Amino acid sequence: MDDSIYQTGRRPEYKSRAERQIGEFLESRRIPYMYEKPTAVVDAGKTKIWYADFSLQCGPLIEYFGMTGDRHYMDSARHKLHVYQENQFDVIPLYPADMIPQWPDNLLRRIESVLERRLRDIRC
């Protein structure tokens, strides 16, 4: 995808039902994002291109990790979060257990928390 959904009007083809729910929620709140935006990271000294599930225009990335019963997948998820942190990306990880009825409010609070922390960092 080369533009946010608000700039193109095209709806992404999500890879899971939960990703679709997240995308539709962001759209309903008019939070600009790109789905699977190419993102450069340095992993083990090599520059790689990863595709974060959601790149919010306001900065944070959202990654949905849906295969919690798969050990290899979860090891890969932990590695991914570690590399994002090393590269100074703010990432909000979501898991199936997070998709409870009040998940939209919880996600908004997490986004707000990241943005408030960034603002505090700027003021210091």
What does this structure look like?
This protein is α+β, with helices and mostly antiparallel strands and 124 residues long. The protein has a single domain (5-117), classed as Endonuclease, Chain A (3-Layer(aba) Sandwich), CATH 3.40.960. The chain has helices spanning 5-8, 17-28, 71-86, 103-123, and strands spanning 33-43, 46-56, 61-64, 91-94. Strands 1-2-3-4 form a four-stranded mixed sheet, sandwiched between helices. Helix 3 (71-86) links the parallel strand 3 (61-64) and strand 4. It is globular. It starts with a helix and ends with a helix. Mean pLDDT is 92; it is low at 1-8.
Present the secondary structure layout.
Layout: H1 5-8, H2 17-28, E1 33-43, E2 46-56, E3 61-64, H3 71-86, E4 91-94, H4 103-123
Parallel strand pairs: 3-4
Antiparallel strand pairs: 1-2, 2-3
Q: Helicity range of the residues?
A: 40-55%
Structural class, by secondary structure, is alpha+beta
CATH arch. level architecture = 3-Layer(aba) Sandwich
Query: Biggest β-sheet: count, sense, barrel?
Result: 4 strands, mixed
Q: Give Rg in angstroms.
A: 15 Å
Shape verdict:
globular
Task: Count every helix, treating DSSP H or I runs of 4 or more residues as helices.
Answer: 4
Overall CATH class: Alpha Beta
Order of helices and strands: HHEEEHEH
Assess the beta-strand content as a share of residues: 15-25%
Total beta strands: 4
In short:
This protein has 124 residues and is α+β, with helices and mostly antiparallel strands. The chain has helices at residues 5-8, 17-28, 71-86, 103-123; strands at 33-43, 46-56, 61-64, 91-94.
